[in-house]
Amino acid sequence: LINKVYYFRSVSSTMEVAKKLAEQEKNFLVIAEKQTAGRGRLGRPWISNEGGIWMSLLIRPSISLRESFILTYLASLCVCKALRQITSLSFYLKWPNDIVFLTNDEIKKVAGILLELKAEVDKIDYAIIGIGINVNNQINSFEPTGISLKELTNRLWNRTDIIIEIMKNFYHYFQVKPEEILNEWKQLCLTLGKKVKIIRPQGELIGKALDIAEDGALWLEAENQRAVKIYSGDCIHLRV
Ligand code: BTN
Questions:
Q1: Residue 33 burial (C-beta neighbours within 10 Å; 0-12, 13-18, 19+)
Q2: N or C: the chain end with fewer CB closer than 10 Å?
Q3: ipTM more than 0.95?
């Protein structure tokens, strides 16, 4: 899967570092203790103090741009399962790719995935899978919807063990068919069957999350309307 691991004390973002190293290296992992300009999905900043896992996996899969959606499902599944295996706690997936924990009926985000691709026409040159996990860092003061493993369990966790478990899962799931990955993903997904609000630049939609389509879209049944496919956006679970 990879032949090198790069480790840094501090970087702007492991995504940027991976992009640079792609010029000289094939498949590798970049890990940093802290990021000064960590990024999240939808152009948001990602706070990355010491104590968390901030890493980017650069791979060169032989898939088309059309098929690349599976990578975020694959990555979030690998992280969710690794956290379950290590902590024995019930982590779940929230569409599109958050790893969450349910406390007193509140959904708290523990980890997120950011996918960046370099492609020519429909052929992928490389994919960078960014993984951010709040492990031993304190985050509750900045982010009311986020939580770290330490805050959740009142103890520290060995980050190397978690990274190894994630990489073992990647090794396994890279050999699994997309349909099977989506099936396993759906089994751990909290979003399906729920009433949600999707926030997109073009506006908001409220409806029931029905299913994940074969192309990775979320099937949403808006009130009194036919189901529509949602490809990206923010998903907020509503209380009913
Ligand atoms: C999200 O949920 O919005 C995705 C968060 C992804 C954060 C990780 S941390 C390692 C990598 N480097 C970054 O700048 N972002 C990703």
A1: middle
A2: C
A3: yes
